[in-house]
Amino acid sequence: MTDTEPLTSNVRPATDALITIRIIKSFPYRNVKNLIIKDIDLKSSTSQELFDQVVNEINTTGGLRPYRNVQYDSLKIYTKAHGSKSMNLVINFENDEEWVIFKKGDSIGDKSLWDLGIQNETEISIFNWDDYVEYKKNPEEKW
């Protein structure tokens, strides 16, 4: 018998996971709101389905009303459970090739979240791609 307990991210099965969605309204002003999605089946859900679910939550939840005026079109992993976090508090600039899991018009929306590397307690950002590219050129924060 070992004295160590399993990591909380490994306790829940992939068919009953919990993920955090970081809704990014503005990169320079760091307007970010978290949305917790519980009981998601990572093996059968696609990134397109996750995107549609998040947009629906934004459009129907009263507390997310200030976030409705952004045209969201992309999902990207911010951090994986027990992994290192980005130095940028808004979005992770690294790993665009591997960690962008949904972008309008791309075929990656057909893959399951599990196949895209999403695990329990992963944090995912939803944002507007053009705003991201512009902010990445000059990551200046405003107050």
Outline:
This protein has 143 residues and is α+β, with helices and mostly antiparallel strands.
Question: Can you offer a commentary on this structure?
Answer:
22% of the residues lie in helices and 24% in strands. By secondary structure, the chain is of the alpha+beta class. The chain has one domain: Phosphatidylinositol 3-kinase Catalytic Subunit, Chain A, domain 1 (Ubiquitin-like (UB roll), Roll), CATH 3.10.20.90. Strands 2-1-5-3-4 form a 5-stranded mixed beta sheet. A hairpin with a 4-residue loop joins strand 1 (17-26) and strand 2 (31-40).
Taken in chain order, the helices and strands follow as HEEHEHEEH
Task: Look at the structure and give the CATH class.
Answer: Alpha Beta
Strand order of the largest sheet: 2-1-5-3-4
Question: What is the helix fraction of residues, given as a range?
Answer: 10-25%
List the helices and strands and how they pair.
Elements: H1 8-11, E1 17-26, E2 31-40, H2 47-60, E3 74-79, H3 96-99, E4 100-103, E5 123-127, H4 129-137
Parallel strand pairs: 1-5
Antiparallel strand pairs: 1-2, 3-4, 3-5
Protein name: Altered inheritance rate of mitochondria protein 29
Family: Belongs to the UPF0538 family.
Write a concise keyword list for the protein shown above.
alpha+beta; 24% strand; 143 residues; Ubiquitin-like (UB roll); five-stranded mixed sheet; 4 helices
